[in-house]
Amino acid sequence: MSIERGVRCSLLAASLILSTAVPVMAQRTHALVVAGLSGDPAFRTRFTTAVTATRSAAIERWGVADSSLIVLTEDSAAFNGRSTKENIGQAFVTLSKRVAPGDILLVMLLGHGSGEGAGSKVNLPGPDATAAEYASWLAPFAKQQVVFVNAATGSGDFVPVLATPGRVVVTATRSAVEKNDAEFLQFFTRALTSDDADADKDGRLSVLEAFRFARTEVGKSYEAGNRMLTEHAVLSDSVVAARIAFGKRGSSTNPKVAALLAERQVLESQVAALRTRKSTMEAAAYEAELERLLLALAEKSAAIKAAGGSQ
Question: pTM surpassing 0.85?
Answer without folding.
Answer: no
